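Case 279 in the screening queue. Each case pairs one protein sequence with one candidate compound; here the compound is NAP. For every case the pipeline is the same: read the inputs, emit a complex structure as tokens, and attach any notable structural observations.

Predict complex for case 279.
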Amino acid sequence: MKIAVTSASGKLGASIVSHLIKEIGKENVIGIARTPERAEHLGIEIRRGDYNNVQDFDLALNGIDAVLLVSGMDDPQKRIQQHRNVINAAKKNGVTKIVYTSIVGDENKNAFSPIVQSNRQTEEDIKSSGLAWVIGRNGIYIEPDLEYLETYLKEGEIRNCAGKGKCTYTSREELGFAYTKMLVEEKHNGKTYNLVGEPITQSQLADYINQVFKTNLVYNSVTFDAYLEERTSELGEFMGTVIAGIYEGIKNGANDVPSDFEKATGRLHKSALELVREF
Ligand SMILES: NC(=O)c1ccc[n+]([C@@H]2O[C@H](COP(=O)([O-])OP(=O)(O)OC[C@H]3O[C@@H](n4cnc5c(N)ncnc54)[C@H](OP(=O)(O)O)[C@@H]3O)[C@@H](O)[C@H]2O)c1
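Case 279 output:
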């Protein structure tokens, strides 16, 4: 059985590839990447695949039995067509199964909703593709928060607009493990899983970071408008709105969802404290 993973040059794609290699052997895993050089370190066959390029995927999916489609990073409307390019090429090549990395979130209540909506549209496209399918709705990765630690330390605080909202963080490592099971085990076909850990507040996150890194961070909540202004001035309009929208969603409960991680993997998701320790 040959399994291909798209966006293999990215961090989630790489995690899925390394878990898959352990499960089915490196000769059966094919990485697809827009920038193949960035995926060569994985030590497997790499094929070119830009989501905007239909021909790339017509070639890249030749001889593949199952494909893992990592959601793209573009304007919501563009992503829908990009994902369709992969789904159509999979059909054309006789791929039998598609697994998609979607996202947890509200479809219409916050500034992140346009992205969530585009993921939901791809979920529909996958379900009507005629292929066997499995959909994972990913929780927020914890790693970017921890990579931001130096900034938090400089400022002495974690500051965003999540208030007392709870977020079910996961990690790319946990997701790599789950997607491998979802790809190779047939019992998951036709299922949509929330791939998330335990729900925690930003204050709990600060506590766990303090325990592990021996720091003294506090959590301070600000209004959505103040946070949006701060994020867009640092990250630009698109990413600033995405980030502020994510924390707005957390505040309103969009990320406090029940976990299906055990159904997907046969074991419990690691605790949030364990995720911080492992980082
Ligand atoms: N759950 C979360 O917390 C969270 C957070 C951030 C993002 N996400 C979503 O999860 C996805 C994977 O996350 P990640 O951590 O792996 O991100 P990452 O490390 O930044 O990697 C992004 C990947 O997307 C690829 N890519 C971008 N545009 C592409 C295109 N037109 N065609 C093909 N590949 C393209 C990049 O390829 P190049 O190497 O060529 O640039 C790279 O491999 C993201 O794309 C995004 O949809 C989720």
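Case 279 observations:
- The domain at 3-137+170-195+257-269 is CATH 3.40.50.720 (Rossmann fold).
- The CA atoms of residues 49 and 159 lie 38 Å apart.
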